[in-house]
Write a structure and sequence with these properties.
4 helices
């Protein structure tokens, strides 16, 4: 009888050790819920925005480079004849 009681106590202690308190279990569940993230802006919109910002930055750089640094008319950057002239200068033999 004493052996049965000591065996029961040993198993109860093992169960207590293996069981986690409810608070820890609740925290684990909440951390899993927090790990799920809902995106406000979809990825395809982010990619599109990055491409648009890159194009605007490149255009701004051309206007500043040609108009301010090069002392030309900033509107001339958008003309096809300006770029044809630059290509002709580069490809000249």
């Amino acid at each position: 009888m004493v052996a049965k009681e000591s065996a029961k106590m040993a198993t109860r202690e093992e169960i207590k050790k293996t069981k986690k308190p409810k608070k820890e279990q609740e925290e684990k569940v909440q951390s899993k819920i927090k790990g799920i993230r809902i995106r406000l802006i979809p990825i395809w919109v982010r990619i599109l925005l990055v491409l648009i910002f890159m194009a605007v930055s490149a255009l701004a750089g051309l206007v500043i480079g040609y108009g301010v640094i090069g002392k030309g008319n900033p509107e001339d950057v958008l003309n096809k004849s300006t770029w044809q002239h630059i290509i002709d200068l580069v490809e000249k033999e």
